[in-house]
Amino acid sequence: MEPEEPVSPATPHPASPRPVVRHRFARLGDRFIAFVLDTVFLFGVFAVVDAWVFMRWGAVEGNELQLTTASLVIAITLNAVLLFLYGWLLEATCGATLGKAMVGIRVVGTAGTPVFPACALRNVLRIVDGLGFYLVGTVVAGCSGIRQRIGDVYAHTAVIEENFGTGRRVAAIVLWMASLAGAGWALPHICSVNDRVPTRYLGQVVVRTGRAGNSAYLKIAGFSVEVQPPSAGE
How much is the pTM? Predict the structure, then answer.
């Protein structure tokens, strides 16, 4: 028998370095445009929701709409929940809201934290960033090296530029326009039916708005505003 040759241990190959992926952080101008687009979209959603709430927990008498405390509390609560869910779910699952997708920016994590809790915290802290019509968030992001607002700092997120592709951008634009068209169609139908729900609590009227002759008015507690269009001779 021939002697077996000794087997030398395999020399480990050096691990190839992972490619470094560099992102361009989104400009504040692009984030502002995305914010405006999202605001317009949400305005249509809120208009439908608020109209439905006001027609059920408010009252219509002649040309006057009367808003009770209950109707205002329900409307504000639903608006806040929808605002949070819109930003949280779309950013956590798709990386971007409709406005961000149309502009071409997305939210990413900076510390490897789970995406759902991070995006939830990011959107909760809009309460702080939104103070002064988002002046606080804008100033903080402008002073940050990677343009993070307060919500981004605590949630360990950042907003970067992203090429979503033509298909996703077109889908976002179509959905954005369809939602506004749907809101415009639904509002007259909702406002034509006053199916009031009686309430045992918070039923006092706090806001009145309507028309009297050629003028429109708004009354909130003891405060009243009346708007009258100029006459033809003026």
Answer: 0.84
